[in-house]
């Protein structure tokens, strides 16, 4: 095996589906052993069973809001694989772009508390549970960020604020944990995943993938410069491998790589400047 992550050990929160699962599978293909953490043990065990090398994938049931469970998950990962090189902080939920004007004050409060507890506190608690092991290996943290870490309208105010908060968290931890632990992010654009909504808005049963399936064929192309960019999470995993690898990105910390079809270079007049090409 000669991958970019040969012999690495990673812990991926939200590793049972979506981009977390895709990253876990890619890390295994690159030579790593991976603990996948989530709330749904059955889903996690299916990822293990589907792996071409199930001995290098380990399912851990935990809620990212539970600090003790995260500490136990790190301890179990080290007991199973001997160390921890990479934390991929990734588990999250979306607000389905629920606008401020469509929330009353009570909904706003409960949804904020739930979504920030998962998306922001969950990243912080995972980092807290992991940093001691990461110092030992001179490892790193890779956070799943979003186009919503930089731009509006990728969520409602609560999701957008949460992903901006994660960007700040990534930068602050990159400073605090340097020089021994690097901290970076991958700011993903739209992917066809099982991303769910908050229980506070009774949206836990909604799945983002369904809205991709409902998209009519005659709809204009997505408003991103790379109209034909893939939405398959597996096509978003390369930057995670790059940032996890000491050999490939040893001097990089405090940075977010945007993998979003070029939203950041979009002009005001049209989504793409090259439609006439
Ligand atoms: N899908 C997109 O278009 C998109 C775009 C940008 C960023 N993201 C981000 O990607 C990350 C992963 O989401 P996804 O799109 O792969 O969706 P997903 O629902 O497939 O994956 C999220 C995973 O996190 C788990 N999870 C949720 N709450 C949890 C909790 N409290 N404790 C433990 N596990 C929990 C879920 O069970 C699921 O397995 C999120 O942080 C999301 O904000 C997604």
UniProtKB/TrEMBL annotation:
The lineage of its organism: Bacteria, Bacillati, Actinomycetota, Actinomycetes, Mycobacteriales. It is an enzyme of class 1 (oxidoreductase). GO terms for molecular function: 2,3-dihydroxy-2,3-dihydro-phenylpropionate dehydrogenase activity; oxidoreductase activity, acting on NAD(P)H, oxygen as acceptor. This is 3-(Cis-5,6-dihydroxycyclohexa-1, 3-dien-1-yl)propanoate dehydrogenase. Coiled coil: none annotated. SUPFAM superfamilies: NAD(P)-binding Rossmann-fold domains. Belongs to the short-chain dehydrogenases/reductases (SDR) family. Residues 211-233 are annotated as: Disordered. Keywords: Oxidoreductase. It comes from Nocardia bovistercoris. InterPro entries: NAD(P)-bd_dom_sf (IPR036291), SDR_fam (IPR002347). Its EC number is 1.3.1.87.
């Amino acid at each position: 095996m000669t991958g970019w992550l040969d012999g690495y050990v990673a812990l991926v929160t939200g590793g049972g589906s979506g981009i977390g699962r895709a990253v876990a599978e890619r890390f295994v293909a690159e030579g790593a052993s991976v603990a996948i953490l989530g709330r749904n043990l059955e889903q996690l065990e299916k990822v293990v069973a589907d792996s071409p090398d199930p001995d290098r994938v380990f399912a851990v049931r935990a809620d990212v809001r539970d600090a003790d469970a995260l500490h136990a998950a790190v301890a179990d990962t080290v007991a199973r694989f001997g160390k921890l090189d990479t934390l991929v902080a990734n588990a999250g939920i979306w607000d389905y772009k629920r606008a401020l004007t469509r929330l009353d004050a009570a909904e706003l409060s409960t949804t904020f508390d739930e979504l920030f507890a998962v998306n922001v506190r969950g990243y912080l608690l995972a980092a807290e549970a992991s940093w001691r092991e990461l110092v030992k290996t001179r490892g790193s943290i890779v956070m799943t960020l979003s186009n919503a870490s930089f731009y509006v309208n990728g969520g409602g105010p609560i999701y957008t604020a949460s992903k901006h908060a994660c960007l700040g968290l990534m930068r602050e931890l990159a400073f605090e944990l340097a020089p021994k632990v690097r901290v970076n992010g991958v700011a993903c654009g739209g992917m066809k995943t099982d991303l769910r909504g908050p229980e506070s808005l009774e949206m836990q049963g909604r799945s983002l993938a369904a809205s991709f399936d409902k998209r009519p064929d005659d709809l204009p192309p997505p408003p991103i410069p790379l109209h034909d960019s893939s939405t398959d999470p597996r096509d978003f995993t390369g930057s995670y491998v790059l940032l996890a690898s000491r050999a490939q990105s040893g001097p990089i910390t405090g940075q977010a790589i945007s993998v979003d079809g070029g939203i950041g270079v979009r002009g005001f007049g049209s989504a793409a400047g090259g439609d006439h090409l």
